[in-house]
Amino acid sequence: MKMRYDVVVLGGGAAGMGAAKGAKDLGSSVLLIEREPFTGGVLNQCIHTGFGLQVFKMELTGPEYHEFYRNKIGKFDALYETMVLNIDFDGNKIKAMNSDGIHEIEYGALVLATGARERPFEALRVPGTRPAGIFTAGLAQKFVNLENHLPGHRAVIIGSGDIGMIMARRLFLEGVEVEGVYEIMPYPGGLTRNVAQCLEDFNIPLHLSTSVVKIHGKRRLEGVTVAKFENNSPIEGSERFIECDTLVASVGLIPENDLVKGKIETGSDDGIFVDDLMRTNYENVFACGNNVCIHDLVDFTTTEGEIAGKNAALVAKGESLPPRAGIIIAGSGIRILSIHYTTATEPFKLYVRVDRPMEIATININDKPVKAAVNARPSEMIELTLNPQKIDLKGKIIVSAKGVKK
Amino acid sequence: MRVAIIGAGVVGSLIARELTKYEAEVEIFEKYPDVGWGVTKANSGVIHAGYDDEPGTVRSKYCARGNSLYTKLSYELGFPIKRTGSLVVAFDDEEVRVLEKLLDYGKQNGVEGLQILDKYKSLEKEPNLSKMIVAALWAPSTGIVGPWEVAQAAIENAIENGAKIHLSTEVKGIKKENKKVFVEVDDRDYEFDFVVNASGLWADVLAESAGVKVTPLHPRKGEYILLDQSDLVRTVIFPVPSKAGKGILVLPTIHNTTLLGPTSEDLPPDWRDRNETTREGIQKIIENTKKLVPSINLSKSIRTFAGLRPENDLKDFVVVKEESMVNVVATRSPGLTSAPAMAEEIADWIVQIGGLKLNKNFNPYRKPIPRPYEMEDKEREKLIKENPAFGRVICRCNKVTEGEVIEAIKRGARTLDGVKLRTTAMFGRCQGSFCTVNIMKIIKRETGIDFGEIEKNLPSSKVVDGEIR
User: Fold this and answer.
1) Do B388 and B404 lie in a common domain?
2) In Å, how far is B385's CA from the nearest CA of chain A?
């Protein structure tokens, strides 16, 4: 089948829904393409609360957030259970496949909102056997929240990412004995609020600078050996065997951009490089959400999606958007930037992550301090509002962080 | 003539299929719940050219011949093979002399197209090779396959031509009595006229149970790292071989990933199920392969695993042919490559002994599972029209459709690994975190197995454990 839309959005999670709304609000025809049979993405399995505080000033569960926002968008066209096979960026065409056959879709502008995938436990190259009973946190969450099945009865959580801590609590509440959460770094990998609400409130121990060094069990997991770590290496003699039938891994998210690899500029962590209009290296291709950079809160991806959708609609209408005027570079102390280019036209929000914990972090732009963040940690994004009327956002813009003691 | 084959690895499967070309009653016994899950499952998947094997060894007799048979086999049995070619790279003059020796072995073994390339020609073939190399031996006939796919295809074709398979059936011993052979399984014996022992790691034990003395086996472990990188290397890259074997390689796989390994660690004879990875092994792979290809990106690792190869002190295959039994022992490297040539010769032997006639109804062709992602649009459209399930992608990393999963189940997959090793679903960069649930739902729907009872691979390897409420 052949079709044409002003704006085509790839991915129906929070960012993609935001983009659909942003484009629809400006009167564009919108087609959303989604691999699952429904919108919402990972929100559907996140039945815990904490969503929506930023954008809606309400505390919602994932499914509530999805429903609430979905109703705001109104009607739009969508292809579900549909896989994009390739994108012709020069011909502005997409080839997609579903059970009705092959579809060729022409777009005026395109929004990439393909989200992220979990780093699998197997990527850590942990020695030992390969039994059943090892899950990514997201997969364990799907089994428990959507399929009504328990992954096992005695669990060890490896990695203290947000989903890992949320699953520690979730499993505890379903009667699973959660032996502990093990984090290789000397600080937690997720939000402070999750350390308090998911672990401390339930007396689930968090072991820092400790990780799994061996897997035991031939058929189903029988246990793991953990050890203390120093400089990324296990400390000899610190090993301890833990009997468990379940290992849940929360060891990072990876922006999912394999479809556009080699065509769209990405960084070393696979995130797409965009400017403050959420525009990629193609004038009519935009990106938003976790395929740009891994966000702390879904709220931010919704906002980003709306910006991307709005600008995509403008381009589809034939308006020309301002060109890029500056490049943002991560300087010392900074690990992640959400945006890599500026147009230096309107104020915008930039999210950054520091590369190590700092009691007080001074964030500098070209060596001028713009913000001080207390208790800065790599796991919590720092929000900066950059206004071209106030600081020079043309040319080379180096963002750095310097730690000072309280 | 009733013939039993013990072991549905690549050797046993190909022998079984070869025998179905004749009027033999073939029954295959496999201790695992699926085919190709022993030695076949975890090796490099390389179809070697045949220059490594010292002329005069049993290996040298089968390897080059086996390599050439793979082209026809792949066509008939519908499994993919890619003739990537290989480079053995030398870093100094001493190593260049080893290349010259290999070139000479290759010529004696009848390997065609071998050539020693200088540094620049080598780097042209493989731009990511270390700039420190001085020369390389180029072997154009080296190829790559998915080893378990060869076993699956051969068994499917053998069954189509009348063979019978007993899965999850461990053979405890073999007895020869009055020109008959008895295959002992749990509480009963099966009577046959002839038995082929292709039981991989346990081949010496089974041979002994039938009174055949062979050089004892021990497992040799090979650890691997799998990378989610499709463009790192185009050919199979070897260091120069040493006493420990062909060395630790960098190679593309047939499934568009990159494989690093194997290590080569001799284990005690009774460690035949100790296929765990080790910190030292993984470290060794990293150090060795980075010397060959410095741009290896370890952050692209998606899995590590280990396989066990049946090794003996002769470092050579042992094929013992008798009136009522053939033992195929020590099918170490290059066992995968040699398997078709062994199968051909062993089948000939049995045909002679039994005076077997050709099976006039033999159909050499096995249809592979359709793979819409790799088809032209017209072909895809037609397939999806016939069966819409071939349009629904279940595994997003490797673009495997529901149709392929259903077809894998129809062909015998009952476990997650059964589906994985037939379709490549759960084999990609997310290692199944997205698609496992959907695949379990399809297994449940197609087979009636309870969701909670579905296993990863072996019995007692249940994926989940209990309902919530």
Assistant:
1) yes
2) 7
Q: What is the pLDDT of residues B248-272, one digit of tens each?
A: 999 999 999 999 999 999 999 999 9
Q: Residue B235: pLDDT band by 50, 70, 90 thresholds?
A: very high
Question: Are B273 and B336 within one domain?
Answer: no
Q: Is residue B412 part of a domain?
A: yes
Summarize pLDDT for A152-175 with one digit per residue, the tens. Answer: 999 999 999 999 999 999 999 999
Query: What's the gap in Å between the CA of B52 and the closest CA on chain A?
Result: 31
Q: Is residue A358 over pLDDT 80?
A: yes
CB contacts, 8 Å: A100 with chain B: 384, 388, 391
- For residues B325 and B210, the answer to whether their CB atoms sit within 8 Å is yes
ipTM value, please give it.
0.96
Which CATH number fits the domain that encloses residue B297? 3.30.9.10
Same domain as B245, residue B388:
no
Cα separation, B219 vs B84, whole angstroms: 29
A275 and A323 in contact (C-beta within 8 Å)? Answer: no
Residue B244 predicted with pLDDT over 80 = no
Q: Is the pLDDT of residue B92 over 80?
A: yes
CA distance A376 to A396: 25
Tokens of B25: 């009653």
Expressed as residue numbers, the domain containing B123 is: 82-144+220-308
Name which of B235, B243, B282 is nearest B82 in CA terms: B235
Under an 8 A CB cutoff, do B301 and A125 touch? yes
Q: Is B370 exposed, middle or buried (0-12, 13-18, 19+ CB in 10 A)?
A: middle
Q: Calculate the CA dihedral of residues B369, B373, B376, B381 and round it to 10 degrees.
A: 80
Average pLDDT, integer, range B143-160? 98
Which residues of chain A lie closer than 8 angstroms to B273, CB-CB?
218
**B440 — pLDDT class (breaks 50, 70, 90):** very high
Calpha distance B412→A223 (Å, rounded): 31
Based on the number of CB atoms within 10 Å of its own CB, is B310 exposed (0-12), middle (13-18) or buried (19 or more)? buried
pTM of the model: 0.97
Residues of A within 8 A of B469 (CB-CB) are 148
Q: Do B303 and A131 touch (CB under 8 A)?
A: no
What CA–CA distance (Å, rounded) separates B332 from A308? 57
For CA atoms A47, A49, A54, A57, the dihedral sign is positive
A149–B452 CB contact, under 8 Å: yes
CA A229, A231, A234, A237 dihedral sign is negative
Read off the amino acid at residue B58: V
Same domain for B155 and B138, yes or no, is no
Asked whether residue B181 is assigned to any structural domain, the reply reads yes
CA atoms within 13 A on the CB side of A295: 24
Q: Tell which of A103, A139, A141 to mutate to test the B interface (max B CBs under 10 Å).
A: A139
Distances (CA, A) of B22 to A130, B338, B354, B355, B420: 41, 22, 10, 10, 33
- Domain containing residue B161: CATH number: 3.50.50.60
Segment A249-284, tens digit of pLDDT: 999 999 999 999 999 999 989 999 999 999 999 999
- Quick check: is B458 in a domain? no
B218 catalytic, yes or no? no
Residue B77 falls within a domain, yes or no? yes
**Candidates B298, B463, B468; nearest CB to A144:** B468
Tell me, what's the pLDDT at A406? 67
Q: What is the pLDDT of chain B when averaged over all its residues?
A: 97
- Same domain for B165 and B247, yes or no, is no
Count of A-B CB contacts under 8 Å: 142
Domains of chain A: 1-118+252-321 (3.50.50.60), 120-251 (3.50.50.60), 323-406 (2.60.40)
